[in-house]
Amino acid sequence: MKPSMRCSLRHGTMRPGVPRDSRSWPRAMALSFNSKTGIVMTRLPLALLALALAPMALQSQQSSFAVVPFEAQQSFGLDQESLNALGGGIAQILASELSLSPGGSAAPRSTTAGAISSQALPKSARIDAATAAKIGKTVGAKYVIMGNFVDYYGKFRLNVRVIDTQSGAIVKGFSNEDPKMQDRDQIYLIIQSIAQKILQELKLPPAPATTVVVPGAAVIAFSLGIKAEDAGNKTQAASLYERALQIAPDFPEAKDALARVRG
Questions:
Q1: Separation between Cα atoms, residue 179 and residue 241, nearest integer Å
Q2: Max Cα–Cα distance, the chain, nearest Å
Q3: In this structure, are 218 and 199 located in the same domain?
Q4: Distance CA 119, CA 135 (A)
Q5: Both 81 and 170 in a single domain?
């Protein structure tokens, strides 16, 4: 067996068997030619290799979604505190459901909240598609999920929009249009259904099916817990998450939240 032949670019010379156009390759790259296989092999220095892979690593760390709190519109029948909290709870559950897809991941709630704060919006201002795109870019998300809900004495409607972060365009809107799926007690099921529609529209793998039953009262208690946790009141948040679990013992987001505030 003939020994492997190497080329030296330092002096601009090349030994037999190595393709001539290899001389134009970067000097930092070491080349070797295996006479048996006829394959030219390269050995890129670690610093250059890390630099080349950096964009790929950054891309793998990016979140697919940033979900912003939903806005209550023209709602009646619930107290104002519950309505104000429900938008955050809906966003958290939707983020969790989207993250169950093998191809989906959502930015942490605190990260998204920080990105919203960085926009310095007036307190009463609504987040439009252009602002949503800026929020998405800040957290490294490909899409931003936003929208509103209407609760009219228990008749519940959730309206969701998917925003493309790069273009700021609305990809598609979703809602629970089926009259049989518009009861406040079905909030959790409505969120799950819309999450699956979003994943399907974006050609991402579906989230695993679940048979967990979570009544609307549990979602409201969970939402109030999210609001208390975000305000820094972990004791009150834990109590509210416990209340949610008393109503729905298998409520996954409430379990995770309770473990988080107790940890």
A1: 30
A2: 86
A3: no
A4: 8
A5: yes
Q: Could you tell me the residue range of the domain that residue 44 belongs to? A: 5-59
Q: What are the percentages of helix, strand and coil residues in the chain, rounded to 5? A: 45, 20, 35
Same domain, 229 and 124: no
Confidence of residue 63 (pLDDT cuts 50, 70, 90): low
Does 120 lie in the same domain as 17?
no
Among 69-83, 112-126, 242-256, the minimum mean pLDDT is found in: 112-126
Using alpha carbons, list the distances in angstroms from residue 121 to 71, 134, 161. 15, 12, 20
Phi, psi of 137 (to 5 degrees): -65, -35
Contacts of 230 (CB under 8 A, 6+ apart): 88, 109, 113
Looking at this protein, which amino acid is placed at residue 250?
A: D
Instruction: Tell me what the mean pLDDT of segment 219-245 comes to.
Output: 98
Nearest to 253 by CA among 222, 210, 228, 224: 222
pLDDT tens-place string over residues 1-60:
444 433 333 333 333 443 434 333 343 344 444 444 444 444 445 444 343 443 333 334
What is the number of domains present in the chain? 3
Please give the average per-residue pLDDT across 126-153, as a whole number. Answer: 95
Q: Reduced to 3 states, what is the DSSP secondary structure of residue 79?
A: coil
DSSP H helices in 9-99: 46-61, 80-99
Other C-beta atoms closer than 10 Å to the C-beta of 34 total 14
Q: Are 101 and 199 in contact (CB under 8 A)?
A: yes
